[in-house]
Amino acid sequence: MLDKARQLLQEIYGFDEFRSGQLEVIENVLDGKDSLAIMPTGGGKSICYQIPALIFEGITIVISPLISLMKDQVDALTELGIPATFLNSTLSLQEMNERLRSASNGEYKLVYVAPERFQTEEIFYLMQAIKVSVIAIDEAHCISQWGHDFRPSYLSLCETIQHFSYRPTILALTATATPVVSSDILHLLNIEEENYVNTGFVRDNLAFQVVKGQERNRYLLDYLKINEGQSGIIYASTRKEVERIFELLQSKKIPAGKYHGGMKETERNEWQEKFLYDEITVMVATNAFGMGIDKSNVRFVIHYQIPKNIEAYYQEAGRAGRDGLPSDAILLFSPQDVQIQYYFVEQSDMDDEHKKLEYTKVREMAQYASTQVCLQCYIVHYFGDECKECGQCSNCLDEREAMDITKDTQKVLSCVKRMGETFGKSMVMKVLTGSKDQKVKHWKFEELSTYGLMNAMPQKEVTQLIDYLTAEKYLTPTDGQYPLLKITEKGALVLKGKSSVTRKQAQKAHKVAIDDRLFDRLREIRKGLATLQKVPPYVIFSDETLRQMCQLMPQTEN
Ligand code: ADP
Ligand code: MG
Ligand code: ZN
Fold first, then answer.
1. What is this model's ipTM?
2. What is the strand order of the sheet 206-212 is part of?
3. Residue 110: exposed, middle, or buried by beta-carbon count in 10 A (0-12, 13-18, 19+)?
4. Does ligand 1 come within 6 angstroms of the Cβ of 348?
5. How far apart are CA 459 and CA 279, in angstroms?
6. How far is C-alpha 116 from the geometric centre of its chain's CA atoms?
7. Is the Cβ atom of 294 under 6 angstroms away from ligand 1?
8. pLDDT tens digits, 426-449
9. What is the pTM of this model?
10. Does the beta carbon of 295 lie inside 6 Å of ligand 1?
11. Closest C-alpha residue for ligand 1 atom 25
């Protein structure tokens, strides 16, 4: 049967080789083993259930969370010559019945169903009328309350499946599951641990970058100019921001579209189609855009604001480079955006326990912007996996010299200690900088030996230092909205003078006027270099390189 699988891969999809994990999952499914497959976004999960669907008798039901995308998914299959259809609330009763009839006559191999529909009589009818060989649960992290996109209708799937007169093989698929979420999915669906296929989370064609301390509009426009004609997504955290950025791009004649929950569905869909068919190159969107969208040539995903957590970030950023070619995943970081995400959590109707968890997740996302370890590794570690330095993220490429900051670190840590490890970072910063704040007085912190110990440093820098020490795990914040700083074992060693700390220091940003003529030249050079050295353009135009090139270039020359 595996030969058959390979043959289908070549004949129907036109691919030579299976990607990592695909064959293993397909083999499991063909053997009738319930499985959980974790593969990165763009890793090729769909084929894992589509190929078995073609081999098995009867039909495969695919649970997919977004109604708006089912049509696209089905159209894509139809184009490949695979008979498929979908059942969801957009259909009239008559259409629904027609499709059910055709499905029970075996006219389709795959039937996409919204999770809400899965509980209904139609499904039980279908199960009786025709053999359902496999139930594929796409975006399976929605099952888990500990996931980042919990949906009650997904949880009730598990219940419904128990009531079927026979048990089809279950295949759960997701790209973003922390160890807690994976084990929750295994447990809820009764999947055995040995049928858990995890291809790892590394996306080696993505160059992760964090951009800090730069004017974001300027950065964005510069980036788009250099990468003119390339397809990409810009994520913003509010509808208002999407509108603003969209207008900015339009005013610069950049072929951009927009997508957010406040727009009419028809308008949204129109932009989406235009983006998918490359009529526009840039999509400005909230996180409402993108789930399940399979556009292979997305060359960059830029987050104009920090998203709510690492799962969301990785899923959104992962929409770049599905074709495996080098692509950029850029976060434009500004510290106050973290507050927006805290605010969203505060306003949500989650219970306190979940809120606490979400605050912590926001913070872990924010630390991504402060860490100096490989960005790919930071993410992969978050998902509980091992990782080798990627060599292409902005941290790996950061050539600034690492300075010894052991003394400053000791100052911060001993201050935290003297304050009893019962305060948050802003209070620690105030004490260190010798602030006259009422609260400092109230707690009599003026009497501490660490009071004012770092008064030569601006408050902002001390805050950044604390963020850095937290990201590098010398300090660990407690859960919740107002976390208290605790010293880790790693931090304790530094306090005792048993280990040292280094940090690549921020340089003063060079303000460089980048005019159009310079950019035209840069583009020419990029073309030249790309053909000469076969170096992917994104490497040459890393942020720092670009700025250096601009400085090297005589600005008066024609
Ligand atoms: P996921 O659902 O895991 O995010 P998809 O199933 O949508 O990913 O696949 C992502 C892209 O990879 C699609 O364009 C798909 O055609 C392509 N793809 C999948 N499997 C292979 C393969 N074995 N070889 C080459 N391309 C593949
Ligand atoms: Mg998918
Ligand atoms: Zn790296």
1. 0.98
2. 206-212, 327-333, 298-303, 231-235, 282-285, 256-259
3. buried
4. no
5. 48
6. 25
7. yes
8. 999 999 999 999 999 999 999 999
9. 0.79
10. no
11. 15
